[in-house]
Amino acid sequence: MKSTILSILFASFVMGLFAQTTLSGKVFNGDGIPLQDATVRLLLLPDSTWIAESNASKDGSFQMEAKRGEYIVHYSSVGYISTYSQPYRLTNVPQTAIPIFLQSADQAIEAVQVIGKQASVRQYADKMVVDVEGSILAEGNNVLELLEKTPGLVSDGKGNFSIQGRTGANVRIDGRDMYVSGAQLASILRGLQASEVSKLELMSNPSAREDASGTAGIINIVTKRNAIVGFGGDVSLRAAQGREFEGGFGGGLHYKVNGLDMYVQGNKSYNRTNSHNLTERSFYDQGNLLSFQRQNERKFLDDATFHSVRAGAKYEFADGGILDGSVHWMEGSYKPYATIEMDTWRYPGGVYAERAMSNNHFDESFKNWTFNVNYSNRYEGEDHFLKFNFDFAPHGNDYNNRFETDVFNLQQNTETATGRTNVQDLSNTTYAGRLDYSRPLADASKIELGWKGTYFFINNDVVNTVLDNGTWIQDVATSNRFQYTQHIEALYAIYSGKYEKLEYQAGLRGEYTFIKANQVTLDKKNDQRYFDLFPSGSLLYNLDDNNTLRTSFSSRIERPGDHDINVFRIYEDAYSYHEGNPDLKPEKSYITEIGHGFKNRLFTTLGVSYGRDIINWIIRQGDQVGENLSRPENIGRFLNYSASVMYNQTLNSWWTASHYANAFYNDYTGEIGNVNLDAKGSSWTANSRHTLQFKYGFRSEISLYYRSGVTTGPTRTDQRYGMDLAAEKKVFGDRGMIKLAVNGLLRNANPQLTSEYGDLKIFHSDFPDNRKVLLSLNYRFGN
User: Fold this and answer.
1) pLDDT digits (tens, 9 = 90+) for 531-577
2) Which entry of 108, 600, 611, 624 is 20 to 30 Å from 515 by CA?
3) How far apart are CA 461 and CA 415, in angstroms?
4) Which range in 12-16, 169-173, 611-615 is most confidently predicted, on average pLDDT?
5) C-beta of residue 476 within 8 angstroms of C-beta of residue 515
6) Is residue 326 a contact partner of residue 108, using CB atoms and an 8 Å limit?
7) Which among 766, 669, 765 is positioned nearest to 714, based on CA atoms?
8) DSSP letters for 55-101
9) What is the C-alpha separation between 459 and 39, in angstroms, rounded?
C-alpha cells in the first residue's frame, strides 16, 4: 500500500513537472486598437530560447501553451516598435499577461526609459541592428564618433565609410538619403548627437526596394521616436572633458492623443579640442629619392557650435490612413586653426634645405533643412498598403579659409612670405518623391511595386587669392563656378513568398541616370545618360526551431559626385590640395552573402563582393616638388572576401554580452597610366560589449574594440583599439537618469597610415583627442 501511494505521488510530481499550462493576453497599438496578426513569441529564460509562437486574433488576443518555467514574451508587428514583457513564472495555473501597447515605428522622440531587454547587436535576415538608445557608452558622442566604433564599420573620419571592408556605404537618416557626401556629410554627423539616435541599421546587401547607390550597402541612422500617449517631454544636459571642455543641452515636447501625434526636439552642442599629427613624404624621380619632407601639425578648435531642431506631426484617420509631416533643421559653425612646421631635405646628399612655418585659419559653416511629407494607407492586413513620400532638402555650406606661410631657404639664407585664401559658397537642393505599393497574394506570397524620382542641383562658387609681393590678388587659374545636376528615375518590383520552411524574395530595380556637369568659368559642359538594371534576391530556410540558413545577392552602383568631377582645385593647406576628375565612370559592385543563425544568438556570415571601375582618391606629387595632389581615379577591379561571427550571450540574469568579429581580405587590381595599383591585404575587427544590470536602477557597460590595418587601394591604415567604460543610475523616481562614461580608457594614441603611388610615399601618424570623461543628466516629465 505504501509503495502504491509513493508511486502515485511520484507520478503526480512528474506529470506536474511536464504538464502544459497556458499564457494568454492581448496586443494593442498606441491608441488602444487591437493589433490583428501581431506576432507573439514565448522565450525561455535565461537564454531567451524560442519556445512557442502565436499570431494575435482580430480582437488582439492570443494564447500559448508551455511547460512550467520562467519566460518573457516578445511582441512585434510590421510598422511598430518591438518590445519585451516582464518575466512570467508559469505554473500549473493558467496566467494572463499584462496588456501590451505597441507604438508605431514612424513616431519621434522616445523618453529616457528603455522598455524591454534585447541584445545590443542583433542580426536579421536583411540587416544588422546596433542598439544605440540602450547603450550608456553612446552618450556624449556625436554620430561621426559613434559610427567609428560601430561593429562592422570602418570610417576614415572624413565622411566615408566601409562595411565589412567594402568602401562606399550610403548614409541615411530615418530611411531618407542625406544627399551630401564627404566633408559635408562629416560636418552634419559631427553636429548630430548620439543621444538623438535610437539604433543603427547596417544593410550590406539591400533589396531592390532600396536605392542602388552605395557599393558597400546602406547605413541607416534611426532617430528616437515618441512612444507615450498624452503630453510630456524631456530635458538633457551633458558635459565632457578631454584635452579641452565640450558640452551641450537639449530637450523636447510631445503630445499624442486620439490619433494625433506632435513633437518637437532641439539640441545644441559646443565643442573644443586640440590634436597633432606627423606626416612624412618622400618624393622620387625614376626611383631616385629627390626630397624628403617632415611635417608637424598642431590643430586647435576653440569655437564649434551645432544646433539641431526636429519637429513633426502625424494624424491617423479612421480608415487606416496616416498623414505624417516633419522638418529637420541643422546649423553649425566650425572655426579651427592650425600651425604647421615643415622641414625639407634635398637629395642626393640629404641637405637640410628648407624650413616653412604655416598658420592656417578655417571658418566653415553649414545650414541644412530637410522637409518630409508622407501618406500611407493600409488595407486588409499589414502587407496590403500604399505609401507616398516627398522630400525637399536645401543644404548650404560656406568656407572662408586662409593659409599663410613663411618659407626659409637655408642654403641661400632667404625668407619668402606666401599666402592663399579659399572662399567657397556651396549650395545643393534636392527634391525626391517615391510611391510604394504592396499587395498580398492568395498563396502566402506578395508583390511590391514602387517608383522613385530624385533631382538635385549643386552650385559651387570658389574664389582663390594668392599673396604676391604683399598684395592679395585673385588666382584666376583656380577660381571657378561649378554647377552639377543629377536626375534619377527608378522603378522596382519584388516578389516574395513562403513555401513550407523556405522564405524567398526576388527583386529587380531599374534606374535611369542623367548627369550634367557645367564648368561655368570654362564654359564647358559634360552630360552623361545611362540606364542600369539591379537584380537582387534572398532565401531563408528554417531548418528547425533553432537553426536557419540565409543567402542573398544584390548589385550596387557608386556614381561620381560633384566633388569627384569638379576639376578646379580646393586647397587644404599651403602644400596639399585636391581636384576632381571629369572622366570618372560609375563604380559597380556585386555582393553575395550566405549565413547561418542558431537560436537567435549565434550568427555566422560569409560574403564575396566583386567591383569594377573602383573610384579611389589617389595622393600623388603636385605641380611642384614638395606639393601633393589628391585626385579620384577608376582603378580597375576589386575583390572582397569576408567572414563574420556575432554571438549574443546571457551569462546570468544580470550580465549580458554581444560579441562581433569580422575578417576580410581586399584585393585591388588595376593601373593608372603606367603606374601599377595592385594592392591586397587581410584585416580583422572585433567588438565585445558587456552590460551589467544591478539593483536600485544602477547599470554599467564596458566595450572593447580592435581593428587591424585595412587596405584601401594604395593606402594601408594601422591598427586601432580601445576600451570604453560607462555607468548610469536612475534618479528622481525613475524619471531621471545620470550617466558617467570614460571613452578611451584604454586606446592607441597614434593611429597611422601609409600610402604609395608612383613617385610619392607618405607616412602619417595621428594623435587625436580620443580620451574623454563624459557626464550627462536626463529628466522626463509628463506622460
Assistant:
1) 999 999 999 998 988 899 999 999 999 988 878 888 888 888 778 88
2) 611
3) 33
4) 611-615
5) no
6) yes
7) 669
8) E--TTSEEEEEEESEEEEEEEE-TTB--EE---EEE-SS-EEPPPEE
9) 49
Q: Which value, in Å, is the radius of gyration of the alpha carbons in the chain? A: 29
The overall longest dimension of the chain from CA atoms, in Å, is 118
Cβ neighbours of residue 697 closer than 8 Å, sequence gap 6 or more:
729, 730, 731, 734
- Predicted model pTM: 0.78
Q: Are 411 and 291 in contact (CB under 8 A)?
A: no
Cis ω for the linkage preceding 348 (within 30 of 0): yes
Return the pLDDT at 493: 97
Q: How confident is the model at residue 714 (pLDDT cuts 50, 70, 90)?
A: confident
CA dihedral 665, 669, 671, 675 (to 10 degrees): 60
Beta-bridged to residue 577, according to DSSP, are: 571, 629
Do the Cβ atoms of 760 and 628 come closer than 8 Å? Answer: yes
Buried b or exposed e, range 613-645, using 16+ CB within 10 angstroms: bbbbbbbbbbeeebbbbbbbbbbbebebbbebe
The residues, any chain, with a CB within 8 Å of residue 115's CB and separated by 6 or more, are 83, 84, 227
Cα gap 397→263, rounded to integer Å = 28
What residue ranges in 410-523 does DSSP mark as E strands? Answer: 414-440, 446-468, 471-474, 480-499, 502-519
Q: Is the pLDDT of residue 258 over 50?
A: yes
With 0-12 / 13-18 / 19 or more C-beta atoms within 10 angstroms meaning exposed / middle / buried, residue 558 is buried
* Digit-coded pLDDT (tens) for 59-105: 788 888 877 777 888 888 866 777 888 778 787 777 888 788 887 65
Distance CA 475, CA 574 (A): 14
Q: Which residues contact 332 (CB under 8 A, 6 or more apart)?
A: 187, 188, 190, 191, 304, 305, 306, 307, 365, 366
Which residue is associated with the grid cell 571601375? Answer: 613
Which of 253-256's residues contact partners 24+ apart within 8 Å by CB, and which partners? 254/108, 254/109, 254/226, 254/228, 255/230, 255/231, 256/30, 256/107, 256/226, 256/228, 256/229, 256/230
Residue pair 108/265 in contact (Cβ under 8 Å)? The answer is: yes
Across the chain, mean pLDDT equals: 85
The residue written with cell numbers 585673385 in the block is 474
pLDDT digits (tens, 9 = 90+) for 651-675: 888 898 989 999 999 999 988 777 8
